[in-house]
Amino acid sequence: MAWSIVAVGAVATPVASGNYTMTEPAGATDGDLLVACLSFRSNVAFGLPSGWALVATQQNSGDIDATNGIASGLMAYIVRGPSAPALTFTRTGGDLALGRIVAYRGNHATAPLDTGSSNTLAVANATATTATITTAEAGELIV
């Protein structure tokens, strides 16, 4: 079965600091792959909710000001069970954070992640870069 996007969750209300509770996409059901994308302007790390697995994170340890700050980010996933998973990403302190969850359908693997990669530029820049991506087999989902 080919991958398909079931739904994109709403961006939960941004928080100035502390924990961040995301919103599950409407229509997500048992067996769907939920991918959380969280961005934040801070060097304070987030802890994952129970059951979630880390794809990649990039923690900025330098410039986090509101004008030219370099963002930090985190991606995590979970294969949804019969009920909604825990959705609160935890941290102590920090600065602005916001994110959303995308629900995918079409994979029946219990561990759908092959690999993750992250990169943050050393200085503020309008051009994003990433490592080369190679899939292990045809039909894989790249997020």
Main sheet characteristics? 5 strands, antiparallel
Low-confidence stretches at least 5 residues in length (pLDDT < 50)?
Answer: none
Oligomer, anyone? single chain
Number of strands: 7
The radius of gyration over CA amounts to 16 Å
What percent of residues adopt helix (DSSP H or I)? Answer: under 10%
Shape: globular
SSE pattern: EEEEEEE
Strand order, biggest sheet?
A: 1-7-3-5-4
- Number of continuous helical runs: 0
What number is the mean pLDDT?
Answer: 80
- Distance from N terminus to C terminus (CA atoms, Å) equals 18 Å
Percent of residues in β-strands: 25-35%
* Structural class determined from secondary elements: mainly beta
Characterize the structure shown.
The chain contains no helices and seven strands. The strands form two sheets. Strands 1-7-3-5-4 form a five-stranded antiparallel β-sheet, with no helix packed on it. The protein has a two-stranded antiparallel sheet with strand order 2-6. It is mainly beta. It has strands spanning 4-8, 20-21, 33-40, 53-58, 72-79, 88-89, 97-105. It is globular, with a radius of gyration of 16 Å. The mean pLDDT is 80.
In short:
This protein has 143 residues and is mainly β. Helices cover 0% and strands 28% of the residues.
Please give a handful of descriptors for the protein shown.
143 residues; mainly beta; 28% strand
